[in-house]
Amino acid sequence: MYTVGGLTIDQLGVVHATKYKPPIEQGTLKIPTTFDALGGLDQSPDRFVFRNTVHTSLNGVVGSHMMGNWNEMAYVVVAPFREATRLNGPPAGFCTVDTYWAMDLATPLQFRKFKVVSPAPSSEDFGDGDLFREDGHFVYYKTEMNDQDRLFFLRHFLTERHPRYPDISVNDELYYFAETLSRHNVTIIPRDYYIDTDADIENLEAIILSSGPNDLEIIDGLMRQTIRDYATYHALSGYNCPARECGNDYWVDDLRNTGEPEMAVEVRALHHGKHCYSKQYELEKMIHAQDVMGRIFRRPAPREIEKFLADHAKSLPAGSVNLVRRLILHPLYDNAREARDRLLAGMNSQHLDLA
Question: Residue 61 in contact with residue 76, Cβ under 8 Å?
Answer without folding.
Answer: yes
